[in-house]
Amino acid sequence: MTRYCAFFAAINVGGNRLTMADLRYAFEREEFENVETVVASGNVLFDFDERPTEGLEELFAYMMKDRFDMTTFAAVRTREEVRSAVEDNPFTGIGQDHFVHTLFLERDADPEHFDRMVADHSGRGPEKIALGPRCLYIDYVDGVGGSKLTSAFIERRLGCRGTARNVRSLARIHSKMG
């Protein structure tokens, strides 16, 4: 069995209210094992046979629509990928942990789209951005709340969805993954 984390986008924000108990139950009904939620924002740890995470992401999108009438995206990562999201983030240890994020993407970003996004953001704020495997590394420097580097800005330019977590949360999740 492999240990995974599903990072759901837009859970308990923007009107998508869902108890973590209901989310855990949905996972258990799908026969995932050792299901645990971390924080009330849609981080679900679970064990399952090793498989490509993209198929699990599709399953969870269907499950959320079918069970909860929610359209959302889930980025599924292994324990090693969560570790990498912290340790390979070039801003970890430089920026403040609650401002340094890894934005998990549904697929690898096209380098040309990434370069255009960086150029479009130039002069709009102090954020630092780096490209990673199926993710972006972001240092929000002055905080996420007032940043113009929003999820909508990123998704429009990259042409794919994502969901972000700060490195403090990711380190906590990684430690809970065993």
TrEMBL record:
Output the InterPro entries linked to this UniProt entry: DUF1697 (IPR012545)
> Which domain of life does the UniProt lineage start with?
Bacteria
Q: Which Pfam families match?
A: DUF1697
Q: Which PANTHER family match?
A: BLL4334 PROTEIN, DUF1697 DOMAIN-CONTAINING PROTEIN
- Name the UniProt record assigns to this protein: Uncharacterized conserved protein, DUF1697 family
Organism equals: Novosphingobium panipatense
